[in-house]
Amino acid sequence: MTQIAPRTHPSAHLPLLREVYGRLLRGLRTRQGRTLAEVAARAGISVAYLSEVERGLKEPSSEVLEAICIALGSSITGLVGATHRELRDLTSDGATGGRVLDLTSRVGSSIATPTEGAAPTGTLAGPAHDAGVGTTVEVLLAA
């Protein structure tokens, strides 16, 4: 079995992409009340491999990620968007107070949902800002 080398990069405090993907996929699967075996069968992968993906131990290809997302009734764009938001929020650049309303997901079936403070209409509600301070809003669109 291949050993994964320890991280020495300055961003070592950030989770790896595979760890974030895995956590998000496992969260979606468990919220749906589905088993590893059921999702793995629908995605066309082994239960052991799906378990390793969910635990952040395997770096799946984009094709495998897409198959898992489809098996969960979601999309790879939703997974990538949710991953982006999580990593952005963990970085100093992401600590600007920006909010995201993801318009790419179907209600109830996606990893990506509007973040706190973003109403379904896209209107943001939040505390008043000092003069000259703004809020960043990102809108993710799918083609």
How would you describe the overall organization of this protein?
Helix content is 39%, strand content 6%. The chain is built from five helices and two strands; from the N terminus they run αααααββ. It has a two-stranded parallel ribbon with strand order 1-2. About 9% of the residues have low confidence.
Q: Strand-and-helix sequence, N→C?
A: HHHHHEE
Number of strands: 2
Q: Uncertain spans, ≥5 residues at pLDDT below 50?
A: 112-124
Question: How far apart lie the N and C ends?
Answer: 40 Å
Structural class: mainly alpha
Quote the average pLDDT: 76
Shape-level CATH architecture: Orthogonal Bundle
Strand content: 5-15%
Rg: 17 Å
The CATH superfamily is known as lambda repressor-like DNA-binding domains
Number of helices: 5
Please state the overall shape, judged from the principal axes of the Cα atoms. globular
> Residue share in helices?
25-40%
Q: Going across the major beta sheet, what is the strand order? A: 1-2
Number of domains: 1
CATH class wording: Mainly Alpha
- What is the CATH topology descriptor? 434 Repressor (Amino-terminal Domain)
Biggest pleated sheet? 2 strands, parallel
